[in-house]
UniProtKB/TrEMBL annotation:
Residues 9-149 form the NADAR domain. It comes from the Eukaryota. It comes from Bodo saltans (Flagellated protozoan). InterPro entries: NADAR, YbiA-like_sf. NCBIfam families: ribofla_fusion. It holds the Pfam family NADAR. This is NADAR domain-containing protein. The lineage of its organism: Eukaryota, Discoba, Euglenozoa, Kinetoplastea, Metakinetoplastina.
Length: 166
């Protein structure tokens, strides 16, 4: 695979690709609940129904979120099905992020058909492990979201003018 067919990202502060990070401050609304970022949504789902869920949703800093996660982990309130559903939760959160935030959506769609890689040596599950040996599930999620957004747009254009969706 040529380097030109790959888009690498990781740092939330990187312009313009920082919007690919779950930490980017792109608020999302899911089931009438607003979350400051995909990171907040993801962790609220991880600890859904627990005493820390609402605190995570309203946390205003990463430091506060990390503190709440440590507390939740020490209390053992993680969902029992978390390992099975976490990738789907990440996919859903990112879909809403890019669907609801046109600036981020534009940047994602500008990647065209390029492979998206979360390039980091600190994560071999969501990232590429820094050397390509990781699973790069975040990159895979973003490519799936990109594909879905393009399909949504194609289907929207097929809608007859004046018709309503049910």
């Amino acid at each position: 695979m040529s380097k030109q067919s790959v888009v690498k990202f990781h740092d939330v502060h990187e312009v313009p690709l920082g919007c690919f990070s779950v930490l980017s401050p792109h608020a999302i609304v899911v089931r009438h609940q607003q979350y400051p970022s995909v990171h907040h949504f993801f962790l609220c789902q991880r600890f859904a129904g627990s005493c820390v869920e609402d605190e995570i949703r309203s946390a205003t800093s990463l430091w506060e979120v990390d503190k709440l996660v440590k507390r939740a982990e020490s209390m053992g309130v993680q969902r029992e099905d978390w390992d099975r559903i976490k990738t789907d939760v990440m996919l859903l959160g990112n879909y809403y992020k890019f669907k609801q935030n046109s600036d981020a959506q534009t940047i994602l769609l500008q990647t065209g058909s390029k492979t998206i890689v979360d390039h980091t040596s600190t994560d071999a599950f969501w990232g590429d492990g820094g050397d390509g040996s990781g699973k790069n599930l975040m990159g895979i999620v973003l490519m799936a979201v990109r594909k879905r957004l393009l399909l949504d747009e194609k289907n929207r254009k097929k809608q007859p003018t004046g018709s309503s969706r049910k």
